[in-house]
Specification:
The chain is an alpha+beta fold. The chain has 8 helices and 5 strands; from the N terminus they run ααβαβαβββαααα. A 5-stranded antiparallel β-sheet has the order 1-5-4-3-2.
Length: 224
């Protein structure tokens, strides 16, 4: 059975719909564009697609859920596709302005080497709102959310380590360390397995400079 891949634009829309009313977004962005002192780019509000406007909290939530980064375009290694350049030119012509301050949402590896996993190109509107210009590449793997869940917090990581340790202890052959088995022996082995896995996880984290999702989503540093 083919599991559908994760479309980040759809996830952004779903998250924003849960947290911010569309009318609130419209009113706030109207106010931003009306007073250009707080607007990063000068847009004609009536020419904007409101379903492409996202608050920074929505972007942060998606980044921390799927372990993505949201960084300035200059840190993005692959070349933007021609479709993205075309969208930028079209927007600039429609709004009679020159856009700047571009941001990209993508997996961390795309800020170090070329790949093609679902990047999204944004431009700031001001007051923590961003306008989605273009999405390209492949959608994310459907299991990515589950695979990166342990890295959302230390609590999540501990739960995963505890569960894996329990499964590993259960799968160990009875009598491997002693001719007789008992509950106390089971928990001693469980503690040993957990300590071993935790040590490996800590070594991996410190040695490779890994950190939890909430601390890296907008960091430009590899070992944030």
């Amino acid at each position: 059975m083919n599991v559908p891949r994760t479309n980040l634009q759809n996830r952004l829309q779903q998250r924003q719909a849960k947290t911010i009313k569309e009318k609130q977004v419209i009113n706030e962005v109207k106010a931003i564009l009306k007073h250009h002192k707080v607007a990063t780019n000068k847009f004609n509000f009536d020419a904007l697609e409101t379903n492409r406007i996202y608050h920074i909290n929505t972007i942060k939530h998606i980044c921390t859920t799927y372990r993505l980064r949201f960084l300035d375009l200059k840190y993005f290694k692959p070349e933007l596709p021609e479709e993205a350049h075309s969208e930028i030119r079209m927007l600039e012509k429609k709004h009679q302005t020159k856009l700047d301050g571009f941001k990209v949402m993508a997996p961390s590896k795309l800020f170090k080497l070329e790949d093609k996993d679902d990047p999204l190109l944004f431009v700031p509107l001001g007051n923590d709102y961003y306008y989605l210009i273009h999405k390209w590449g492949n959608d994310l793997h459907p299991l990515r959310k589950i695979l990166v869940w342990p890295f959302k917090s230390i609590g999540n990581l501990l739960l995963v380590l505890l569960a894996i340790s329990l499964l590993a202890t259960i799968l160990l052959p009875q009598g491997l360390f002693s001719k007789t088995s008992s509950a106390s022996q089971f928990w001693i082995i469980y503690f040993f397995v957990f300590k071993s896995l935790a040590s490996v996880a800590l070594f991996y984290g410190f040695a490779l400079g890994k950190n939890f999702n909430p601390f890296i989503w907008n960091s430009k540093y590899f070992n944030a």
